[in-house]
């Protein structure tokens, strides 16, 4: 493929990378979530005001062609893209090229699950856009930021096993018809970057390994594994989830982590495989440092 001149980004995570590569002018369309993702990236990385002023207005004015993982075919076609960039794992975020009016090789899909994937995809985008040096510089910045955070990590003689309960809100919607699972029976364990971030922070991921996306487990699985730490993330701070603290849930009071109050609600989505991971890594290091101080 030649260097694209008219890119439609159907992925907030890819849009962050495009912004980081300063490829703004080549982008002609985005999803509704791309702009908030870039604004989050700007905050997490404390981007210079000059760069923000240079690139963000362009993204604000771009036509919106869907909400990830979906896209509206006709608005995409109207933009006459020569490249469409998508992302997601499994069926999420996958789009048919012909439906969007482009050749098969004009749709590039990024299934980012690990740090190796993230770096590989940054390099791929850099090569595609004729910006390999910029891609290499971003990877150097990632490494330096990660090492700076890890320098503040407290190491325990034995890494605590950490269970990461993801998307708590999907199980506790006020309307039972909108719940995707019975929380008394199944719990969603988050993957993508989460296992690596937990391990980097000094813990050991429980019931999930690097490269996996998400997994439904039972409370019996969790009781059998007996996590030292329970980490929870509500996708959008769902108020329904907040009405169901772990002590009130069937079987959870039998966990040692619950008994010693080693249950932490995360503010950052440590599962999301994108350039904003330093915020999640920093939060995890701080939480596990707290755990280390309370459990010497």
Q: Helix and strand layout, with pairings?
A:
Layout: E1 7-9, H1 12-20, E2 27-29, H2 34-44, H3 49-61, H4 73-78, E3 83-87, E4 107-110, H5 115-128, H6 132-150, E5 161-166, E6 186-190, H7 194-200, E7 204-205, E8 214-218, H8 219-225, E9 229-233, H9 239-242, H10 256-259, E10 263-265, H11 277-294
Parallel strand pairs: 1-2, 1-3, 3-4, 5-7, 5-9, 9-10
Antiparallel strand pairs: 6-8
Helix pairs in contact: 1-2, 2-3, 5-6, 6-11
Provide a descriptive summary of the structure in words.
This protein has helices spanning 12-20, 34-44, 49-61, 73-78, 115-128, 132-150, 194-200, 219-225, 239-242, 256-259, 277-294; strands spanning 7-9, 27-29, 83-87, 107-110, 161-166, 186-190, 204-205, 214-218, 229-233, 263-265. It has a 4-stranded parallel β-sheet with strand order 2-1-3-4, covered by helices on one side. Strands 7-5-9-10 form a 4-stranded parallel β-sheet, covered by helices on one side. The longest helix has 19 residues, at 132-150. The protein contains 11 helices and 10 strands. It has 2 domains: 7-150, Nitrogenase molybdenum iron protein domain (Rossmann fold, 3-Layer(aba) Sandwich); 161-294, Nitrogenase molybdenum iron protein domain (Rossmann fold). The protein has 296 residues and is an alpha/beta fold. This is Fe/B12 periplasmic-binding domain-containing protein. It holds the Pfam family Peripla_BP_2. InterPro entries: ABC_transptr_periplasmic_BD, Vitamin_B12-ABC_binding. Residues 6-296 form the Fe/B12 periplasmic-binding domain.
């Amino acid at each position: 493929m030649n260097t694209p001149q008219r890119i439609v980004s159907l992925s907030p995570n890819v849009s962050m990378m495009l912004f980081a590569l300063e490829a703004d002018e080549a982008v002609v369309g985005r999803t509704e979530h791309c702009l908030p993702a870039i604004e989050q990236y700007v905050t997490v990385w404390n981007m210079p005001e000059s760069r923000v002023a240079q690139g963000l207005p362009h993204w604000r004015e771009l036509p919106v062609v869907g909400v990830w993982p979906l896209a509206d075919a006709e608005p995409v076609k109207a933009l006459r893209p020569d490249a469409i960039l998508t992302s997601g794992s499994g069926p999420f975020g996958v789009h048919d090229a012909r439906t969007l009016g482009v050749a098969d090789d004009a749709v590039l899909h990024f299934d980012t699950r690990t740090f190796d994937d993230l770096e590989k995809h940054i390099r791929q985008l850099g090569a595609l856009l004729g910006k390999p040096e910029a891609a290499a510089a971003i990877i150097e910045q990632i490494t330096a930021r990660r090492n700076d955070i890890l320098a503040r990590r407290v190491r325990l003689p034995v890494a605590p096993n950490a269970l990461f309960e993801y998307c708590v809100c999907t199980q506790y919607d006020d309307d039972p018809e909108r719940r995707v699972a019975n929380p008394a029976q199944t719990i969603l364990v988050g993957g993508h970057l989460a296992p690596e971030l937990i391990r980097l922070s000094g813990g050991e991921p429980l019931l999930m390994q690097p490269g996996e996306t998400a997994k439904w487990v039972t409370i019996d699985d969790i009781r059998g594994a007996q996590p030292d730490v329970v980490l929870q993330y509500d996708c959008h701070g769902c108020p329904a989830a907040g009405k169901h603290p772990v002590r009130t849930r069937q079987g959870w009071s039998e966990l040692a982590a619950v008994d010693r109050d080693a249950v932490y609600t995360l503010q950052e989505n440590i599962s999301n495989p994108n350039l904003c991971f330093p915020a999640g890594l920093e939060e995890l290091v701080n939480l596990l440092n707290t755990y280390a101080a309370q459990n010497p």
